Amino acid sequence: MSETIAHRNVTLxxxxxxxxxxxxxxxxxxxxxxxxxxxxxxxxxxxxxxxxLAQVLNDAxxxxxxxxxxxxxGVAGPENIAEADTIExxxx
Length: 92
Fold this sequence. Notes:
The protein contains 2 helices and 5 strands; from the N terminus they run βαββαββ. The chain has 92 residues and is of the alpha+beta class.
C-alpha cells in the first residue's frame, strides 16, 4: 500500500529537458538551494530561498518564470502540490 503525501509551501525548479538543467548548472551552483530531486527535470528548492535563487538566476542572465501555484489541499500528485512556487525555464 502506498501513501500519498501532499506538501505545502514548496518551491520547484522545472525545466523542459535535462539538457536545460545541465546548462543552468554550468552557469549557477544550484546545490545550496536544492532540497531534493523529483525527476530529471524537476528539483525541490528551499522555499525560504526562492527569491535569492531567482536573483542568482537573473544575475547569470537566466530569466526564470516564477509562478505562484495554488491547488486544493488534499489533492495528491506532483502536479497538484499545494501552495507551490514554480520556477520554470522554456526555450524559445
